[in-house]
Design brief:
The protein has about 250 residues and is α/β, with parallel strands linked by helices. It contains 5 helices and 10 strands, in the order H-E-H-E-H-E-E-H-E-E-E-H-E-E-E. It binds S-adenosylmethionine.
């Protein structure tokens, strides 16, 4: 029997082969499907993002830091001239933009900026937003912090305002990439945030522009925890790229 072909992108990712699991657990390797040859300028950008080395961008001590390597791949694919990151945390997106020579406006509630308010209209070609996954992690000591919403309904109401504000901030034809993950809340149960993100974005008139990008959660702190009850661990989050229509047929 012939051995199945190895996806070259798995091994192209820096450190992928020798990625050490914590607590002396043996590495587990997944054989990824072959990706087709395309005209993409970023062939390693597929529906599976599995780079255990997220690169030098941002601060690894910041809770919920996102992978700069994924942002870099998206920006090389969509080639925007300007980027907006309204929930910048440790500044990962702005640092990637600086490396690529792209203008970036980044801000955060830690600097008194509330991304759920309206700030810009048609000002950027691309928006990167990495929101709190509801109250999975708490961020600023500020009641406007999205992670401080005490009810799921309150969170979803403010999340709707965030997505609409980001949609308004991009130019017609521009893109909005949201990195988000589902999680299980101690009171609210399973919270399907990827579903809610899409539902809100579609109601706001955005269209999904590409496949879901499943981001493997290498290095997540939850991977080092021990849970007594049986559960199916989530080992990924999802990046969804939306596009704002180029015409006015769907009002935002
Ligand atoms: C998942 S973290 C983003 C991490 C960031 N991508 C990085 O690589 O460091 C979510 C961020 O949203 C910020 N945040 C929460 N509510 C906010 C709000 N209403 N307006 C602006 N930023 C907010 C938090 O302070 C936190 O930095």
């Amino acid at each position: 029997m012939t051995a199945p072909a190895i996806n070259p992108f798995l091994h192209a990712a820096p450190g992928a082969v020798a990625f050490p699991r914590p607590e002396k657990r043996k590495p587990v390797y997944a054989l990824l499907p072959d990706a087709p040859v395309t005209g993409s300028p970023v062939p390693e950008l597929t529906s599976l993002w599995h780079d255990p080395d997220p690169g030098p961008w941002g601060d690894r001590r910041y809770p919920g830091i996102c992978p700069g390597s994924l942002i870099r791949a998206l920006l090389r694919f969509y080639r925007p001239a300007s980027v907006y990151d309204p929930m910048s945390g440790s500044g990962t997106c702005a640092q990637v933009c600086a490396d690529l020579g792209i203008a970036c406006h980044a801000n955060d509630i830690h600097r008194g900026f509330d991304a759920c308010e309206e700030h810009f209209s048609g000002a950027f070609e691309f928006c990167w937003v990495h929101p709190p996954y509801a109250r999975m992690k708490l961020y600023a000591d500020d009641p406007r912090d999205l992670s401080r919403e005490p009810t799921l309904a309150g969170f979803l109401g403010r999340y709707d305002r965030l997505i609409r504000s980001c949609a308004r901030a991009v130019v017609p034809g521009g893109h909005l990439a949201v990195l988000v993950g589902d999680y299980t809340d101690r009171e609210w149960g399973y919270v399907p945030l990827v579903y809610h993100t899409k539902a809100i974005a579609f109601r706001a008139g955005l269209r999904q522009a590409a496949t879901d990008i499943i981001r493997f959660s290498h290095g997540a702190s939850s991977g080092r925890k021990v849970y007594r009850k049986p559960l199916i661990p989530g080992l990924h989050d999802v990046c969804v790229v939306f596009q704002k229509p180029t015409t006015n047929e769907e009002a935002l």
